[in-house]
């Protein structure tokens, strides 16, 4: 090998000719390399390969030496790249093997420091190409070993621009994608993109393509198109025609999953023509596979079969075993559709055998789901007679473990938005499970399904993303093109000190969550049945994925609130709305209910139309007052009856009446599903023909997911005898916002409301209050109530917190409940995870949960910075909107997580007293919001706050039914609910 003075080999030399040809080996090699690279970028791979073969023949005729062997290794490595671009796996395997052999042969040859660097660079290229080859042929463990070998060599290589580092990282991303580990792949690709230098002109667009495929494969089509568009710009800038044309197939794949089948067909056809012309047979096979799926969807069975046969043949010739198995799986579905059950079983089992051998466990789950769906379809078509129960059991044994694995795959993702989009894909599998449970008439299974689905994700506060197993694929039978089109996990980074750009990135990062806890199906501690335990065990064994957290919680606890009769109601969305209920506290009984999805959706739409929309501002509030159903007595009663008919079983009403007659007013604990989380359950008109409401029969409290429940519940502190103070945060002044602005005053000028002044006086007379004030008026519109002050007073201990002010809810479609914010007196310089608004930084639920963990290496979790007192009131717009999200980590549940036993919050945007004055022309002496605040304060001082607040709501309902006056409308008082765990 040449030493560092020689100018014989490698890419590190910067000596170029006037034509821009790098002088490496002399002519004709230098110009030949340049010509071949130009042809490769122009997608003329056959011509590029011909140039390299001519150069290789010439190099083999030169007298042998280490330098010449290195030249030959370089040529063979470049030929490998061309073969891979053309999806010629056999050719790539041959040239890569020969290149590696030449490099190994000269490894011990004398070489200077620069010569050693050039040799290392070529070795890294060979190892990375080898990993790509192994990945494409389904040998994923061997591919990982190859990348690990490259990682061991990488520290020896001087990589100032990080080019080889980024290329190695990109290949790890591709490997994760092939395993279906979308969350881990997205994390690594995003981190890599942020650190890859702009000089890595080939790596950057490929990273963007990978991110686009990850997004389109997980239901996020707008971000996917953004990534593809950025990648296209990069490909165009470097003149990479092949990269631009390949994007056609990726966009077609996204269009197909969006349901735009005509567009997908056109794009796939255009991409196929290009791939066939260029003889890129691997990419062509992917397109044929997709076009077969589309042909089947439009009823062209013959065309679908022909395309499947062509795709399978190409994949088998290329040695792409996993891709071939994907085609077999699609073929199995077509075989079933034409009634060839034996062929379906043969193809499905063949595909599953490949997946099992290659340890692609999410594909095993896909096969099992397909088999379960075909069994259900067969049950619908034919009479199984005495064997029906056995057939249903078989379908459930396939469907339920696979659905659990699919649902649990969301925990790989960093953001709640990505997880919520994934759940939309996973939902079809769980709908299948619920249909089968209903068909089996298995109340026990329905109970356990509801308990598991309602348990809720566990918050993961450590900085290290959890290790994951393979991710389940979306419910569609069509295999993911992303897993074939592109060439054990890396340990995550440890504790980091974040500052500057990194700190800003932490602010934008979402919450990491872990699987839900195990749910014990009894209130007693110790061993006992866990919900779905045999199905969970099967899922974890078959698909190598954690389904539940190791810790277990009882499925309910009531002794901490009341000793009276209580019924726990849980609701789960799975197409239809499923309800389960169980009695305790001296009453026995249980039941299940099912609301047809269309009826539930219609009732919820009518409710939504009656509410002031969170994003509609003043116009939404005006509409709610002028034409909303909750503002007029007759329309409100009709809405209450519509909701009851769609959501509430008559059988449960009858049981509540029986219990009330024998043992007094029961407590109804309701954990709503996201779809019905805004429903004011108290208002439901549960009798046909009378105006009896649920709150007439029972007290109602909302329950949060079991994952928020303390593992070892403590006895409640007696209220009213504790020496800890009451913390009052009453209409704090938000920096940068005038009193009449959107974040201005909620309660009006300090001292203008005598009833609120009396409330503060009562608290001052009863005991300690913070902030310390000399007169009640000083408690309002303060400028010193920021997050640091709140932390200080809560750390010292408090028995209650009452917040009355502005709350900004997070958009439900974003999926991130943790983005909800309180508006204290914090300026923009305050440390936190929410973006500033003008000169003000809100305090977010993410702050309350994560604290300073994302911002400092020595950070503390939010529960230590803002420990919540036993009772918390958050009186602001939609402060209790947490439960509308698949993951409840908003303001109310954050307070529960931080130690609160009960949080009173609101389900929708709250009208202020000023809104009643302006929109309903009430006199200023009538202050409905003030009355509600006083009712909450009174209830939180009571031994039984739920009973106390329920009594006030009944008074309001009686007044509403008697006179229909707007100040007694449920528009205000039914918005409020108390939430417990």
Number of strands: 18
N- to C-terminal distance? 71 Å
* Envelope shape: globular
Number of helices: 37
Query: What does the radius of gyration come to?
Result: 32 Å
What composes the largest sheet?
A: 11 strands, mixed
**Would you identify the regions where 5 or more consecutive residues have pLDDT less than 50?**
1-18, 463-508, 711-721
The overall pLDDT, averaged over residues, is 87
Range of strand content? 5-15%
Task: Write a structural description.
- It is built from 37 helices and 18 strands.
- The N and C termini lie far apart (71 Å).
- It is of the alpha/beta class and 981 residues long.
- The model is unreliable at 1-18, 463-508 and 711-721 (pLDDT under 50).
- A hairpin with a 1-residue loop joins strand 5 (566-574) and strand 6 (576-584).
- The strands form 4 sheets. Strands 7-6-5-8-9-18-17-16-12-10-11 form an 11-stranded mixed beta sheet, with helices on both faces. The chain has a 3-stranded antiparallel beta sheet with strand order 13-14-15. Strands 1-2 form a two-stranded antiparallel sheet.
